[in-house]
Design brief:
two-stranded antiparallel ribbon; Recoverin, domain 1; 2 domains
C-alpha cells in the first residue's frame, strides 16, 4: 500500500509518466460516474489536469476512491504522513488553509483540486529538481525530469510607459521571445480546453513576453493597471481585480519560487482565457501578419 500511495501521490501531485493500475481503475470509474466525455480519460491517464470544473470533480472523485481525500477533513494525512516530513506537512497545511479560505466550504470539487495543487507545489521542492527515478513493487517507474536551465532573454527595448498593444505588436514580441527561448512550436489559435505543455521553453517564453508586453516587472511583479488596459474590454476594474485576485491567490506558489514559475503557474494560467479572447476578437488582424499561418493551426 505504501508503494501505491507513494506512486499515486507523485502521480496526482507531481509530474508522472506512467499510471498505476489502481489509479487507472479509479479514473475509469470516475469518468463513468461523473458522465465525463470518455475521450478525456486519455488526458487524465497522462496526468494532464486542466483548471476546469469537470477536471476538479474528477480529481476529487479519484482522490476519494484512493483514500487520499475526505470532503469533511480534507487531505488524508493518516495515509500521507509516512511519505512527508512534518515541516513539509506544515507548509502544505498552511497553503491549503490559504487557498480554501477563498472557496465556498460546500464546493468540494475545487477544494480537493486546490488542496492537491498545494501538495504538488511543496513536493516539487523535494522531488522535481533532483532528477529522481523511483521503482515501485507494481513494476511501474516514475521518472521526474531534471529542470532544464534556460537563460531568460532580457527585454531592454521595453519602455517604462505603457500603451495597450495591438494584436500585431503583441504577436511580434511573443514570437521574438519564442525564438530567444528556443520554443519550437507555438499555436496562437489554441483553445482554452487544450492542455498547455509545461516545458521550460514555454515557461521561458511566457515570462519573457510578460515583461516585453509590459504586464510584468521583475521589480514590481504583476502590473494590474497595464493588464486592465490591455485585456479588460467591457469589464469593470473592480470586477477585473476581484476575479484575478481570487485566481492568483488560488494559484500562489511557495515563497522562494522562481519568477518564471510564478509568472507561468500563478499568473498565466489565470490570464490564459483573457489573452485567448483578445486574440479571437482580433483574429482578422492576426491573420494578416506575414507568416502567421505557421503559428495558427
Amino acid at each position: 500500500m505504501k508503494h501505491l500511495v507513494s506512486f499515486v501521490l507523485l502521480a496526482l501531485a507531481i509530474y508522472p509518466v506512467h499510471s498505476a493500475r489502481r489509479y487507472r481503475i479509479a479514473a475509469e470509474e470516475c469518468v463513468q460516474y461523473l458522465k465525463i466525455c470518455p475521450t478525456r480519460l486519455e488526458q487524465y491517464l497522462k496526468f494532464i489536469f486542466p483548471e476546469d470544473r469537470e477536471t476538479m470533480c474528477f480529481m476529487r472523485c479519484v482522490a476519494t476512491k484512493l483514500n487520499l481525500w475526505c470532503d469533511r477533513k480534507g487531505l488524508n494525512w493518516a495515509v500521507l504522513e509516512d511519505r512527508i516530513c512534518p515541516s513539509v506537512r506544515e507548509k502544505v497545511e498552511a497553503c491549503v488553509c490559504r487557498k480554501l479560505d477563498l472557496i465556498d466550504p460546500y464546493d468540494h470539487c475545487p477544494r480537493a483540486y486546490y488542496a492537491f495543487r498545494c501538495l504538488r507545489n511543496y513536493l516539487q521542492e523535494i522531488f522535481l529538481f533532483k532528477n529522481l527515478d523511483r521503482d515501485f513493487d507494481d513494476g511501474y517507474i516514475v521518472k521526474v525530469p531534471s529542470s532544464k536551465e534556460l537563460i531568460v532573454p532580457s527585454c531592454a527595448s521595453c519602455s517604462n510607459s505603457f500603451n495597450p498593444l495591438t494584436i500585431t505588436e503583441m504577436t511580434q514580441k511573443l514570437l521574438q521571445c519564442a525564438k530567444k527561448c528556443q520554443l519550437c512550436s507555438l499555436n496562437l489559435c489554441d483553445r482554452t480546453t487544450d492542455p498547455v505543455v509545461e516545458t521550460p521553453e514555454f515557461q521561458c517564453t511566457v515570462y519573457c513576453a510578460s515583461i516585453c508586453t509590459g504586464v510584468y516587472s521583475e521589480q514590481k511583479g504583476i502590473l494590474m493597471d497595464n493588464l486592465y488596459a490591455q485585456l479588460a474590454r467591457c469589464e469593470t476594474r473592480e470586477s477585473f481585480d476581484y476575479r484575478l485576485g481570487l485566481c492568483f491567490g488560488r494559484n500562489a506558489l511557495p515563497e522562494g519560487s522562481s519568477p518564471q514559475a510564478v509568472v507561468f503557474q500563478q499568473y498565466f494560467k489565470c490570464l490564459r482565457g483573457d489573452y485567448e479572447r483578445f486574440y479571437s476578437s482580433n483574429l482578422e488582424e492576426l491573420l494578416q501578419i506575414p507568416g502567421i499561418s505557421k503559428y495558427c493551426f
